[in-house]
Automatic annotation (TrEMBL):
It holds the Pfam family ABC_tran. GO terms for cellular component: plasma membrane. Belongs to the ABC transporter superfamily. The gene is ftsE. This is Cell division ATP-binding protein FtsE. GO terms for molecular function: ATP binding; ATP hydrolysis activity; transmembrane transporter activity. It comes from the Bacteria. Part of the ABC transporter FtsEX involved in cellular division. Has ATPase activity.
Length: 229
């Protein structure tokens, strides 16, 4: 699903690469944690998958497509296949829950009947049935993140990228969010999640990719957060 071949990314203003010679493959249906200290290259890794950045050297492929060969007008098509969830939810404050989720389908040209069917279905799936008429500021943090996940998933993307999705949530709420991401993963969506949450990584026992100063220093299946090399 995602393949990096000897990928190096050096930002124009920098001398040290943000990512250095990364080669890895993430299969369809995998659940992968990306860990590493601040500045280790996690965001850069995600931005390369979304083609928000281009590698300085090497090749990034998503769903069999070499991202360097994507023409600009094909980029929206790629991003449509990749749902994104962030620490700060990024909901539209002036739209209701339903409208936030529907908007994701409107912008890709789905018809009203399709939207009217899909939105309540996905809100039920994330445990927000009955809250479609609320505004984001009327919801708890955990509920807002569920809306963001519903919005990311409503189009059934091949890949879900989650950048510290539990970073603003208490441990109990975080467990609920992880159960939801696990369910989405089991439904077939590949999940790539950046996190600093040791408890979650240790509970889930999924593949762990650890970055350190731009290098991939660990690729461990059923991994844990802290690891003595
Ligand atoms: P992380 O997400 O693990 O904190 P990043 O990928 O954001 O790491 O950053 C990796 C390195 O690249 C850091 O040294 C950071 O300062 C640098 N960097 C990130 N984004 C940019 C940018 N847009 N321009 C210049 N340097 C950047
Ligand atoms: P949590 O379940 O994370 O502890 P809260 O205690 O903040 O969340 O919220 C409990 C319930 O109250 C939720 O269902 C939420 O939708 C509702 N709620 C929270 N804040 C508001 C608000 N400002 N206006 C209306 N409803 C709210």
């Amino acid at each position: 699903m995602i393949r990096f071949d000897k990928v190096t990314k050096t930002y124009p203003s920098q001398t040290r690469p943000a990512l250095q010679n990364i080669s890895l493959e993430i299969e369809r249906g995998e659940f992968v944690f990306v860990i590493g200290s601040s500045g280790s290259g996690k965001s850069t890794f995600m931005r390369l998958i979304l083609r928000e950045e281009r590698p300085t050297a090497g090749r990034v492929q998503v769903a069999g497509k070499d991202l360097a060969k994507l023409t600009n007008w094909k980029i929206p098509q790629l991003r449509r296949q990749i749902g994104t969830v962030f620490q700060d939810f990024r909901l539209l404050p002036n739209k209701t829950v339903e409208q936030n989720v529907a908007f994701a389908l409107e912008v890709i040209g789905k018809s009203r009947p399709v939207i009217n069917k899909a939105v309540p279905e996905v809100l039920d799936l994330v445990g927000l049935g009955g809250k479609g008429g609320r505004f984001p500021n009327e919801l708890s943090g955990g509920e807002q993140q569920r809306v963001a996940i519903a919005r990311a998933f409503v189009n059934r993307p091949m890949v879900l990228i989650a950048d510290e999705p539990t970073g603003n949530l208490d441990p109990e709420t975080s467990v609920g969010i992880m159960k939801l991401l696990d369910r989405i993963n089991r439904a077939g969506t590949t999940v790539v999640m950046v996190t600093h949450d040791q408890a979650i990584v240790n509970q889930m026992r999924k593949r762990v990719l650890e970055l350190d100063s731009g290098s991939l220093v660990r690729d461990q299946s059923r991994g844990v957060y802290g690891y003595v090399r």
